[in-house]
Structure formats: structure tokens, C-alpha cells
Amino acid sequence: MKESLSYESWFSKGMRFQDIGQYSQAVDCFEKAIDSNPHFIPAWVYKGIAFEQLENYEAAIRCYEEAIKVNPNVADLWFNKGSCLCHSYRYEEGLACFDRVLELDPHHAICQTARALTLATIPNPIKLLERKDLDSARKPLESEESIRLSLTEERYISGQTSNEELEPE
């Protein structure tokens, strides 16, 4: 008879599993809540959170996308999706989500911070190209010959070199 529980009951059961760190069981309960009521956004959100705890960011992103389909005007849904995208190294997509959050809620401080940190994380392709050009043009500070000479001098001073090594051929 457990299968006849209401979506609210399945959701509550999922929350209890979530609270004790049993995320796979929580996902199962949230799925049953969603099967009963696919428009119940909290089940999508907490299923996404459980997937995040399991480090399955792609599944979490899909959950947030489903919740966004139900109501695209909830800033936190976009924030959660953007955060998961950034965890998946999909920074540009994450930034687009953060921009949507700030359209919906311009004073969303956590999103402002996350957006700034994401921008600081993304490698600047122009800087990378400049650095690559500099690296290829860089000359060694010392030639191989001068390095060999200084190593020989160090060995001579420390007494590790025999007279035979120092005599010209």
C-alpha cells in the first residue's frame, strides 16, 4: 500500500532521507512524488539537491531544468542550475543562468558573488594566447655550455672533480 502515498507524503519521506544523508533513497522518494505531481517544484529541487550531494551534477541540472519549465520566474532555480553547470566546468552556461537570476532578482547577493567568482575562474582566452606566444619566444637565460661550465666549477670548488676532468683534451 506504500505506493498509494500522496506526493506530499513521498516528498516528506524524501526529506527525512535527505536529512540523514541517504541521498539515493531520497531521490527515489522525490521521483515518486514527481510521478504523482510533476508540477510540484520542491520535489524537483530537492531531487536536484540530492543528486548534487551524490556529485551527479548532470542529473541535478536536469532536475532544475524541469523545475524551470514549471515556473521560469523563480530565481533560485536558475541559481541552482548555474551552480551545477559551473561544477561541471560549463562556465559560460552557468554565467547565463546567473545573469537570468539577476534579471529576476537584481539584489541576489549570493548570485552576485558566485558570478564574480566564476568570472575570476574562467581562463581568459586572449591572455592564454598571449602567454603561449611569450612562452614560445622565451629564450633560456643561460646556454647549455655555460650551465656545464658552472657545474664543473662547482664540482672543482667542492673537491668533487679530478685533475683529469679539468685538463683540455
List the helices and strands and how they pair.
Elements: H1 7-19, H2 23-36, H3 41-53, H4 57-70, H5 75-87, H6 91-104, H7 109-121, H8 125-137, H9 144-158, H10 163-166
Helix pairs in contact: 1-2, 1-3, 2-3, 3-4, 4-5, 5-6, 6-7
Keywords: Repeat, TPR repeat
TPR repeats: 7-40, 41-74, 75-108
Protein name: Tetratricopeptide repeat protein
Give the tags.
single chain; 169 residues; mainly alpha; Serine Threonine Protein Phosphatase 5, Tetratricopeptide repeat; 10 helices
What can be said about this structure in brief?
With 169 residues, this protein is mainly alpha-helical.
What does this structure look like?
The protein has one domain: Alpha Horseshoe (Serine Threonine Protein Phosphatase 5, Tetratricopeptide repeat). Helices cover 75% and strands 0% of the residues. It is built from ten helices and no strands. Helix 1 runs antiparallel to helix 2 (23-36) and helix 6 (91-104) runs antiparallel to helix 7 (109-121).
What is the distance, rounded to the nearest whole angstrom, between the alpha carbons of the first and last residues? 97 Å
Report the C-alpha radius of gyration, rounded: 29 Å
Give average pLDDT, whole number: 82
User: Beta fraction of the residues?
Assistant: under 5%
Order of helices and strands: HHHHHHHHHH
Shape: elongated
Major sheet attributes: none
The structural domain count equals: 1
Per CATH, the architecture is: Alpha Horseshoe
Give me the count of strands.
Answer: 0
Unreliable spans are 135-144
- Per CATH, the superfamily is Tetratricopeptide repeat domain
Structural class computed from helices and strand pairing: mainly alpha
Keywords: Repeat, TPR repeat
InterPro entries: TPR-like_helical_dom_sf, TPR_rpt, Ycf3/AcsC/BcsC/TPR_MFPF
Protein name: Tetratricopeptide repeat protein
